[in-house]
Amino acid sequence: MSEMINNREKTSGEQTERQQLLKEIIKELHEGKPVEAVRQKFEQAIDSISVSEISQMEQALMEEEGISVGEVQRLCSVHTAVFKGSIEEIHQEEKLGHKPGHPVHTFIQENKEIDRLVNFTLTLHRDKFAKDPSEKTSNLLLDDLNRLLGIDNHYSRKENLLFPYLEKYGIFGPTKVMWGVDDRIRDAIKAAKLKLETDSWEADELLEAIDYIISEVSEMIFKEENILLPMALEKLTEDEWLKIEREGDVIGYTFITPPAPWQPAREDLQSEGFMKDGVVQLETGIMSVQQLEFMMNHLPVDITFIDEHDVVRYFSHGKERIFHRTKSIIGRSVQNCHPPQSAHIVNALLDDFKSGKKDVEDFWIPFKDKFVLIRYFAVRDKEGNYKGTVEFTQNIKPIQEISGEKRLMS
């Protein structure tokens, strides 16, 4: 027994030393040391690295060393380049996602299609454009980028279904970093597409933009399959994977048909009610829980409520929600439901509500074929104490088009 204890202490000590060495290597990268110099030090000092160590290292950089999320995001591809060979060696024999319908299997099937589009079709058309920058070849690129926008479903499922469970296990740093890189990829695709649509491209600049997209999308596939998904498989329970799988249809899939339902040999969580029948006694009436839910879901608006501790408590789920919501956000901090880049806007709004500086804030944006009004209201008790915030989202385009008058039924 004592030998086992000693071995455990020794192993723990070795892991601590490895973590410290990893942090030193990454700090040197952030201080501007060349990748090749750092990679040589890494290879001499560390034979292999686990996904847990990478996760812990990135989180420690932010929490202990004060390196910002944005700085880690900026050098994320460099980190991957340094670790790449060692991670591949560890996981080359792992059979991730071998269960059809399991969320990991679905992510990997999508990645195969994304990789085919980016590293075959888009790359082929990129090379044609490089040789002959014409309307014909630029239209091929535009078609590819339009199709590549479908990657949003893949990234949104990762951010809104998988990340909440990782955060439940205290893994915040890697999810923030990856979400930020996802947004950079989305922006790069949209920017290149806009140049092509408006014929405002210079061939060299456009080629550089396409190369960036190909590189970043490919790197993200690697990070997902060699860091994110193995880490998630280590942490999440089968029940949690089942909940993620059950909500996948809410967001949709990228380049694949919706997978057949995955049902492990366990109880079906779908049979569990999220709400129990009962009666709600309100100040101005009495309703059953079912009636209350019917009413909320038939309002022509999307409603979300967070409590005074910034925790998401409720969202309505009508037939045509404007923005995606999944049940996994219930009980989650609202700051962690937004990309890191916009968290400061959320916090500023909540600070104004909590301090009493504001009671309402409005935003309006064009979104797809809609014009969306987003309203936030501070919720207070009779004494004026802050009790939460209601988000009220409505497509007002049909309302903007109203004119004249209507007095009769039609």
Question: Would you give an account of this structure?
Answer:
This protein has 410 residues and is an alpha+beta fold. The protein contains 15 helices and 7 strands. It has a 5-stranded antiparallel beta sheet with strand order 4-3-7-6-5. The radius of gyration is 25 Å and the shape is globular.
Concise synopsis of the structure shown:
Helix content is 57%, strand content 11%. By secondary structure, it is α+β, with helices and mostly antiparallel strands.
What key phrases describe this protein's structure?
five-stranded antiparallel beta sheet, two-stranded antiparallel sheet, 15 helices, globular, disordered N terminus
The computed structural class is: alpha+beta
How many helices does DSSP assign? 15
What spatial form do the alpha-carbon principal axes imply?
Answer: globular
Mean pLDDT: 81
Report strand order across the widest sheet: 4-3-7-6-5
Low-confidence stretches: 1-12, 89-94, 266-276
Number of strands: 7
> What share of residues are in beta strands?
5-15%
Q: State the separation between the terminal residues, measured CA to CA.
A: 84 Å
Following the backbone from N to C, one meets helices and strands in this order, namely: HHHHHHHHHHHHEEHEEHEEEH
Helix fraction by DSSP (H/I, runs of at least 4): 55-70%
**Radius of gyration, whole Å:** 25 Å
> Could you give a short account of the major beta sheet?
5 strands, antiparallel
